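Our preliminary data section would be incomplete without showing what the modeling component actually yields. Below, a chain of 926 amino acids is followed by its predicted structure, encoded as tokens that our downstream tools consume directly.
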Amino acid sequence: MALPLEAINAASAREKSIRRGHPSTLHLWWARRPLAACRAVLFASIVDDPSSRPEEFPTEEAQEAERQRLFKIIERLVLWKSTNNEEVLNEARQEILKATDGHPPPVLDPFCGGGSIPLEAQRLGLEAHASDLNPVAVLITKALIEIPPKFAGMPPVNPEARKKMQMTLKGAKEWKGAEGLAEDVRYYGKWMRDEAEKRIGHLYPKAKLPDGTEATVIAWLWARTVKCPNPACGAMMPLLTSFVLSSKKGKEAYLVPKFEGKKLSFDIASQPPDVEDIKKGMKRGMSGIFKCIFCGTTTTRDYVAAEGKNKLIGVLPTAIVAEGSKGRIYLPANDSILPEIKILPEIDKAGLEAELSPNPRDVWCRNFGLNTPVDLFTPRQLVALTTFSDLVAEARRCALSDALAAGMPEGKGIAEGGRDARAYADAVATYLAMVVDKNADYWSSICSWHSGRDLIRNTFARQAIPMVWDYAEANPFSNSSGNFLGAVGWIVDVLRMLSPKVNGRAGQYDSTMLIPHNLSPLISTDPPYYDNIGYADLSDFFYVWLRRSLAQVHPDIFSTLLVPKERELVAIAYRFNGSKKEAGRFFEEGLGRTFNLTRKVCRWDFPLTIYYAFKQAEEDAADSGLASTGWEVMLESLITSGYVITGTWPMRTELSNRSGSLGTNALASSIILVCRPRPDDAPIGTRKEFISALKRELPLALHQLQMGNIAPVDLAQAAIGPGMAIFSRYSQVLEADGSPMRVRTALQLINQHLDEYLSEQEGEYDPDTRWALSWFEQYGMNEGPFGDAETLSKAKNTSVEGMVQAGILKAGAGKARLLGRNELDPDWNPATDRRLTIWEATEHLIRVLESQGEEEAAMLQSSLGGYAESARDLAYRLHSICERRGWAQEAVSYNSLVTVWPRLKELSVKRERPMDRKLTDKGTFE
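Predicted structure:
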């Protein structure tokens, strides 16, 4: 019925800036839902709206008062500071108990992924169950919901902590939640680091500073090389993508090439070198195309790919980053003597030489010869990772010995359900193996150096294993970016934040074939998004190291050589010999089986909630071979399985700082689909009845979405919800010929009505804006014939001359075009503009936002008074046009304006609002 959506979305958006203690820092996962959204959805799934209790709340006033009370609970509940606030959590738990007569349902997430949904169920006092086919996802979720309750409230067993406890005069410390377990992970993690330094510390020598002293190295920087394809040259040319080492103001550092015949080295300077392109280095196009620094010959991608596949790509040291008393120090590569590969110890490569998946989109490092996990690491990185990985087993033995010495019975292992010494040692080993995994993310040759932040960019800066041409090799024993103890600290902080009150269970199941049927659960889940992410393909990177460390601890989930892929529910064409049609059919059938299972086992008195963030795409079915896109498959599967969509909520679940969304028109929200089993007596509808209902109900729903400030990029997604709620209320909708309407057709009709709704808003705009909107839709920001401009101006009741005077149009020499934002008057003042247009207001808001920032944009928003909202509405319409025409960069600008709108209002709330001015029939303000 209702949700405090703005508070939920604000809390979800803020999670991107929360680092220490957030579960996302336990282990990387590619599509983790914010805790705030999961907590709110679960609470609202159980606690009824007061309108459903008329005997208790007989009037609308009483219902609204109770609704606002519940809103206040949710608004407090979703805040990050409430994550461990027992007072707030207990208030929510009491409401849940009251709503369920003291018998709350267990919660099941059959696609648990990063574990957010079951973790938040457990935090609300609900018994949490989770499953996934992917063993990495299962282990992450076990580490969050299953292991901590087993040892909640226990003191640590390590001798250092026990000695301190014995010496404490004020009595024993109270170890809350997983604090004791966290302390042991910290202790044995430090032991691993110290032991590893004894064994391989000599492989990481210090750097010599100009004054003769030494400094600890943070990272060694390298560039890959190939032989120049020019026979007259033949030099080993660097595949260098930038000469910039640090772009921080006042601390700039650059690579300066130094030539000795065909031999290349680099000096370091605070001034940029005299080269063609400092930021792009020698790269000249798509990945694999580089210009030879010696002779100027440009490679082809095929040439570099062939060199890689033939193992002919070399490496060249470029620089060293060292720890200094006042920040990073950049030094020439020869200032640290590197160990020869031949003196590196032999390592056991068992399990590390299996083939990475031939996924051309997500694992495209294979295009250049990096085909196995071994290929992704330098020889020294392999030594470090195998050393630390093997130390996990040694640390486990230490923890077991100490647990027995602390008086714990030996008991069973954790995989057998144990809770005593063996299980505790297994738990410590589990988290230490995850520490190694976190470091693997920062210790591969896919890591690069972030010149803007002076730190190492991890392997999975994006949802892929790409090819990185100049990479950074971290020092595990430094105190800076990519060090081992840093990863220990991240995991310890997560454990300290966990205060489990109820048990949880995570298992490895294929949800298309089996969902535990003895639970009768409330089901809330975040299924795969069609073909968006190849989870299993990417997870192999982590799995090989987890399996090496934990095969004996968790034999049930590490029984295979690599992550299972054949049954993974994603529509990835390469697994079907490149057939999108077969991949789509596999996904649709599997999703249908899952929803059929959920309908059989779930509690019918609670809704099924589904998070979905797949972006709508218009595909030609004949070309793609698909009958439907990702959204259509999801909806078709739900409706065919007998569900009706009773509610839809756009929630800000996609973090805007993720690499894939930066500077792009990427989705910011998921749509939460609220579903219930369709009644057996649901009516049959006609196409005419469906269209009439859309016309009657969809505009109000869209208006509410806009008032909730949903991002324009999400509006088309969100419109699916209320539209499909109408469609799915019928057992079927019949076409004029009597055939059942397909979801594809229903989506087309919903999109058509969305366009009509946005177009109808044009009637509220001034004539100049209506003209500019029509012109933009046809010509964008390009020139068009003056005659067309003149004809259109008559149709819109304005004039070309007037729009030139208004400052939005340039006309002359038989041509006309809209002025770009960089051409608008920088001193523009809406208070003195006698021909103010909504178009102009929108463009100036974006200009100021992009060039001067939020504070100045907030001042301008405030000065526009009531007409600011019209500017925001226009941004929705313009974004829709840009999406349709493929103008991505322009779409980003309009989307950003709406997204930041609440922030601008917040900044301007203390400013005096100017007197609103009225728009005259002539398109001027008085």
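Residues 209 and 215 are 7 Å apart (CA to CA). The longest strand covers residues 217-227. Preliminary results of this kind motivate Aim 1 of the renewal.
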